[in-house]
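Handout, page 2. Input:
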Amino acid sequence: MMINTRNWMLGLMTGLLTLSGVALNVAEAQTPQVTGGALTVRSDIQEANSQTGVVTARGNVQVFYPARKIQATSAQAQYFSKERRLVLSGNVYVLQEGNSMRAETMTYLVDEGRFIATPPSNQQVESIYIVTESQQPSAAPNASPTNTRP
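Output:
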């Protein structure tokens, strides 16, 4: 009996991520598909270890997570299904709702919805946040109370 390695690998990776509560959608199309809580990973090479529950993607990695409005690129990505943790490394760029971050390594904790970024040696992490102005009127500066003595 001959096993199609590509289909077996896709099935294994889908099973690992689905068991962890995040469905993996490996699509051939060029545009990300919105499918509920799906996390789509595209890369040159992907491998999954059924013993450790770790899925590794290397080379031109693209991550799409529409449920959290996250897009990311990196040289490598590792998804640790038991910890529900995604580690991106190598020239990482993350875009979420117009906000962006660049770092050498970035860890995304799925259950907390939190990123932890680490810069390259002797450099810094860069974040750009969209800040909306408040619509509340501000008090006039240097305003003094009115003297109301009779």
